[in-house]
Amino acid sequence: MEVRALVTLPPYAAWAAEVTAHPLVAGLRLNTVMPLKGPAGEIAERGRVLERLAALGQPLWVDLKGRQLRVVGAAIPPFTEVVVSHAVRVAVPVDVFFGDGREHARVVAVDGVRLILEDGPRRLIGPGESLNIIDDSLAIDGTLTSGDRLWLEAMSQLGLKRAMLSFVERAEDTAEVRELLPGAELLLKIESQRGLAFARSFGAAHGHLVAARGDLYVEVARPHEIVGALRAIIAADPEALVASRLFPSLASHPVPEACEIGDVAFLLGLGYRSFLFGDEVCLRRDSILAALNLLAAVAAEMA
Q1: What residue spans define the domains of the chain?
Q2: Which of 102, 112, 160, 209 is in the most buried spot, having the most CB atoms within 10 Å?
Q3: pLDDT digits (tens, 9 = 90+) for 242-293
Q4: What predicted TM-score, i.e. pTM, was given to this entire model?
Q5: Does CATH place domain 4-67+142-302 in 3.90.700.10?
Q6: Listed residue (113, 122, 131, 118) closest to 80, CA to CA
Q7: Would you tell me how many other CB atoms lie within 10 Å of the CB of residue 147?
């Protein structure tokens, strides 16, 4: 059974070439929330990072955050305010979920980009951390972030055309990227109920789909509904990628959990053949190489 992998590389990883040369690797992802050298708004360092990764010889996908809600600046307990990446409008009170969804708090008021909480979460909420507000009344102002636009400018200067876009929910979400980067080739991350409706309606008409399981799992109404969501995405786009939570235990232990092997076997059984590795497993050479080797072994076992 032939499978391929896209791998997230830290911007300055000394071992990047070794991982890129792995036979399963068919592309690279740059997570644009990772910190860079120099001033935050500097395009030149973005360009240097892009040149370094593009020179590795694999297709490079720049992951733009789009309308995905993220924390701006650290929020340290005790606190009752979180500043987010986009101005939002939502009926309150409403719950907000942080990170993997296990930490949550009650929002009692919204003031543009400020969420006023009833009480603070029990841990530090770090800058760049994703958050989810799961409510039909939620409206997010704007599409691309200022950081996204800087990355697109750097890409344009280098002639790079491949981008991922987070939290795609409507055809219009891709318009600003295509305006700023004519001829852009897009991968569209499906991460919400509205995103699933988009996938069912448009399939791959605006770009191949990515089943981004991290946020998507938080957003489905009940945990078991992730199964139907994954089926819907691969049905809408038979070439869809699947991402997130792939062999996560390898980030901290050399032996994977048995359930993680079954998870990937299930994804293969659904028809997924393209896997996007992100999260902590990509932060170290040994863990991502182990994950790639394990994916190859599971695919061979399923053949």
Answers
A1: 4-67+142-302, 81-140
A2: 209
A3: 999 999 999 999 999 999 999 999 999 999 999 999 989 999 999 999 999 9
A4: 0.94
A5: no
A6: 118
A7: 17
